[in-house]
Fold this protein.
Amino acid sequence: MPTRLTCLFVVPVALALAQDKATEKAAPPTDPLSAFNKVAYGYAKMAILRSAEKMPEENYSFKPTDSVRAFGQILGHVADAQYMFCSVALGEKNPAPKIEQTKTSKAELVAALKDAFAYCDKAYSSMTDAAGNETVAFFGQPNVPKTSVLDVNLMHTMEHYGNLTTYLRIKNIVPPTSEQPIAPPAPKK
């Protein structure tokens, strides 16, 4: 019968070896760069949408100081940026809905964000590594890879998630990426 000490060392090693074997069997993604971009984009999208949902309506006009955007304005700005960046990657004309200038209520901004992310979903879901290497004009640069345009979108989105995190914390709201994972249900006795 194994001792407690043996179990403390053998079980974790066995689990690690089993995980390594499972990893060896999994085929690498066909398009690893664009596959990772899709995952990162999904994370950024979740963080922004959950922030928008968590902040109460009465705090959408909140700004910690007069020199910065209000919470709702940041959301509108992020939505507008989704159209700007993803239209370049898709090779389309930017619909430029001017959400930051025209939407103020929580319902309007959450709906506009969802629409903007749905537009960007097309760019991320259709991107392959080969297509991502195709170049486009972007911010005055004539030959920027499409994948890089989507990377800049991710950086910009997460930059503003950082702003939203501060606003949420000031209002004593836990930001989405700081929430504790939901605990599994307790075993039935």
The chain has one domain: 31-59+69-174. Residues 146-170 form the longest helix (25 residues). The helical segments are 4-25, 32-54, 71-90, 99-102, 106-126, 129-132, 146-170. Residues 153 and 159 are 10 Å apart (CA to CA).
